[in-house]
Design a protein that fits this description.
Elements: H1 13-43, H2 49-52, H3 58-93, H4 98-113, H5 116-126, H6 131-156, H7 160-168, H8 173-203, H9 215-223, H10 232-262
Length: 287
């Protein structure tokens, strides 16, 4: 019995035909929905040349490219700082010392409950920071506190026997965390880490509220242009695939890292030599 047929019976000919029919009906319904949306866009003149004309100009293309670079810059800084902050807070939450564990818990719970936009505006208005600094600070505080919980849950998900076995070998707590718990917990953490980084990537679009010239801010400038009949829908149709592509690229990188980790020398199974004849016992005269 194959692995795919363990939990359910293999569909017979009639069931297979029925499944193909359901798939065909769903595909036709989806195509009909897409056609209906396209017809609405055509009726409202969203594919008119005048609305798409701005994207032919070099200045508009440079504006979008500059916004994309600023978005990636803010995301890169926020991602690195969030991972570092999450690791520090998770270590504090896992500490056995109460004076360390309680403040770390308080910081995590506070910034998890605080809206990202409020933190960004507070840093931008109250602390009079630059737009990039305010955006990165707000994203780091929120996503770092969420990642701290992800790291803590991933370490706690490792079987308790792994920790006890490591302590029985005389390892210190730092060695147990570094060499036993964290490497095993990373596999459980990775999907949640990537999901949170995708959230951080999308939240960079909040920068346009504090006049940070990121990708959405550039699109807003183009969409609000009266000279081209407010090309809002064309701008959305250009910007959305770029955001989706960046999120998909981030997920692909995570899958690549996971595959590399599974192929790592430290995690591969070790070949054991086949058993051979043992040494003869004292007094054994046979052969």
């Amino acid at each position: 019995m194959t692995a795919t047929a363990v939990l359910y019976d293999v569909p017979g000919p009639r069931t297979a035909r029925r499944h193909r029919l359901y798939g065909l009906i769903a595909a036709l319904a989806l195509l009909a929905l897409i056609g209906w949306v396209i017809s609405l866009l055509v009726d409202t003149g969203q594919f008119a040349y005048r609305k798409w004309m701005p994207f032919e100009y070099a200045g508009i293309q440079e504006l979008l490219l500059r916004g994309l670079v600023n978005t990636l810059k803010a995301f890169g800084l926020a991602a690195v700082l969030s991972l570092a902050l999450g690791g520090v807070l998770a270590a504090g939450r896992l500490s056995e010392h109460r004076p360390v564990r309680r403040p770390a818990t308080l910081v995590v719970e506070f910034f998890r409950a605080m809206p990202v936009l409020v933190m960004i505006f507070f840093v931008f208005v109250a602390l009079k920071a630059q737009p990039l600094t305010a955006l990165v600070t707000g994203l780091t505080l929120y996503n770092g506190s969420v990642l701290a919980e992800v790291f803590r849950a991933g370490v706690a998900a490792v079987d308790r026997g792994q920790r006890e076995a490591a302590y029985s070998l005389g390892m210190r707590k730092t060695q147990v965390m570094t060499y036993v718990l964290v490497p095993q917990g990373v596999r459980a953490m990775l999907p949640a880490i990537i999901s949170q980084l995708v959230v951080a990537l999308k939240d960079t679009s909040l920068g346009f509220l504090i006049t940070y010239e990121e990708f959405l801010h550039a699109g807003k400038l183009i969409a609000s242009n009266l000279d081209y009949d407010l090309p809002f829908i064309p701008v959305v149709m250009v910007i959305s695939p770029v955001y989706i592509g960046m999120c998909m690229l981030l997920s692909w990188c995570a899958n690549w890292v996971a595959k590399r980790q599974r192929r790592s020398v430290k995690t591969e199974k070790v070949r054991v030599a086949p058993p051979g004849p043992g040494a003869p016992l004292p007094g054994d005269t046979a052969g």
